[in-house]
Amino acid sequence: MSEAFERFSRGEDRLAALLRALPPFEPPAAAAGDFAQSARQAQAVADQRLPFTPPPSLEASFRAVARRIQADQAPRQAAVLAQLAAGRDAASVLGAPVTEATAAWLKAQPGAKASPAPAPAPAPWYWPTLRGLGFAASAMLVLVVAGQWLLYEEGLEPEGRSASLPASVAVPMSSAPVPAAAPPVTEGTAARARSAPPAAKRLAEVPAAESIVVAPETRTESVAPVAPATEAVALEQSQRRREEAPARPSAELAAPMAAQGPIPVVAAPAYLAPAPMAKAMPAPPPAKRVIVTSLAEKPGVLVPRLGALAPASRLVVRCAAPPPAEFERWLAELRQALPVGVAVTSEASASLAGETLEVDLVR
Amino acid sequence: MPVDDDELARLPDTDLMLLVANGVIAGPATELFRRHNRALYNFVAWQCGGDTAAAEDIAQKTWVKLMTRCADYQPRAAFRTFLFQIGRNTWLDERRRAAEARHDELADVQGEIPDDDLGPEAEQALRQDLSRVRQALLALPAAQREVVVLRYFSDMSLEDIAATVGEGFETVKSRLRYAFTRLRRELEAPP
Q: Mutate which of A7, A38, A50, A253 to test chain B, going by most B C-beta atoms within 10 A?
């Protein structure tokens, strides 16, 4: 074997030095960008000797394509983040060991954090009144029963006839002071009454399961959020899809509540209030709904997902701090796409990053 | 994405690719692009014989494939090897392989391997006119050119080159030897 070739193969001869000295075809144009420089200094130095330099247009088209593909892959990403939120470790989710830095970065992404138990919805304004009435009604009932019992004892009431009571109210058969004898309207029962009904609860949890980027720019139909009730199905399906080339989001992942109808009204508990009183209760305050989206989703595609908006509706759009460069333009497009009269305000949020946006709807 | 940008810069290539494979694409793929696109583009440009328009097209397709067709990625080799494999396969898809491959084989039957190094005067002269070196490299058959490019512009070992081009180690070494012989012959001939 030629010693000269061996030196060449090891890069130690003059020919190898000449090859490495080849200049680039064209000097690189000044590349636009906002990338951090320090981590890439060494790489840039090493790249100086490369004869061919990629044009800036390649980077611009790459970023556009990456955004579109990310939007297409939104359900897969959401499934990954949901698994992390459910407590699985990054290595088992990704299918291979990863560094702690990678696991930490992934855990820090929106959607990967375990959703805290939703705070109980604030009690409707009429609740204290209702509770007071409940106590009062219970106290009256006790007095009536006690009175009837006394009358019975006195022989003034026919035997066997008792006061007519609402079947749902427990009546203590004692002469204890009224407050202690009242049917227990405990915090637990009140909390049960106050807690959001299943549909509203699922909607409230949607942002945790929903992906960062929801709908690609080229799609006309909206991608429905993945409800926790169907997450198990979605995860299973995403596991199967890992065996295939990633496909566009499938309708199989659409939640049953994709229609996103209005949130049900929290009704007064039936066991306390007789029907006529419940009917007299006014409607509760408007329900709140948050939709997670991103700058990649066109406002024209987002607006239908907000549902029917009344002219007096108000939207609050939250973005990362500091706001991304394209945020103002996106906001202007959103205002144009919304019905007349819908107010839109914006604010920065430290809990958001990158192009992720939250649209807070107050009907 | 200022905060994410710096954090992603600390993650290794294979982890970033695992994230991409699992649908977490935008940030990790962008970081991989920043790290490797110049080397990929340069490799592809040499493969295309200096046709930068074709190189841009192939580089773009390579990144799209990376982001869309690698759901079963497992970190078995260096990420750059994996990326260059995709780039090379994409380049092969764009050209007619069979006739050019037969031409490559026939062109390397003859030629004695030089025993000594290039002389210092010859080196100095060529440094004054590097375009001759570039033309000589472009004139190599594609299979030999890609080995030279991967070895001296991407600093890949012969083992990594073999993994990238999907050939055995000895085949790759033979191609490098043929390339060495042809370059020396071309560059030592009178201009």
A: A50
Q: Look at residue A78 in the predicted model and tell me its pLDDT.
A: 92
Dihedral in degrees, nearest 10, Cα atoms A289, A290, A293, A295:
100
From the list B11, B133, B151, which residue is nearest A101 (CB)?
B11
Name the residue in chain A with its Cα closest to that of B180: A5
CB B22 within 8 A of CB A52: no
Look-up of token digits 């869309």 = B68
Q: What is the pLDDT of residues A156-190, one digit of tens each?
A: 544 444 444 444 444 444 444 444 444 444 444 44
DSSP H or E run through A14: helix A14-20
Task: Give the whole-angstrom CA distance, residue A6 versus residue A10.
Answer: 6
Q: Look up tokens 């203590």; give the residue.
A: A172
The strand pair at A343-349 and A288-294 is best described as unpaired
At A231-277, the pLDDT tens digits run 444 444 545 555 544 444 444 444 444 444 444 444 444 444 444 44
Per cent of chain A over pLDDT 90 is 18
Q: If you ran DSSP here, which 8-state letter would residue A322 be given?
A: S
Report the run of H or E that residue A289 belongs to, with start and end: strand A288-294
Instruction: Report yes or no: A25 at the B interface, CB cutoff 8 Å.
Output: yes
Q: Does A5 touch chain B (CB under 8 A)?
A: yes
Burial of B99 (0-12, 13-18, 19+ CB in 10 A): exposed
Give chain A positions within 8 Å (CB) of B42. Answer: 50-54
Judge whether A84 and A107 are in contact, CB under 8 Å. yes
The size of the A-B interface in CB pairs under 8 A is 222
Give the tokens for residue A4: 């000269």
**Contact state of A93 with B126 under an 8 Å Cβ cutoff:** no
With vertex at residue B50, the alpha carbon angle to CA B45 and CA B56, rounded to the nearest 5 degrees, is: 45
Reported pTM: 0.49
Residue that is written with structure tokens 């006839």 in the block? A161
Q: Which two tokens stand for residue B6?
A: 């710096």
Amino acid at A198: P
For A92, the token pair is 């088992």
* Residue B138 Cα distances to A231, B95, B101, B143, angstroms: 55, 16, 16, 11
Nearest to A246 among B4, B7, B71 (CB): B71
Q: Specify the pairing of strand A356-362 against strand A343-349.
A: unpaired
Which of A13, A80, A213 lies at the smallest CB-CB distance from B22? A80
ipTM of the complex: 0.74
- Interchain CB contact of A107 with B (< 8 Å): no
Please give the DSSP secondary-structure letter assigned to residue A256: G
Indicate the residue of A14, A25, A320 with minimum beta-carbon distance to B117: A14
Question: What pLDDT does A225 receive?
Answer: 41
- CA A127/CA A123 separation, integer angstroms: 6
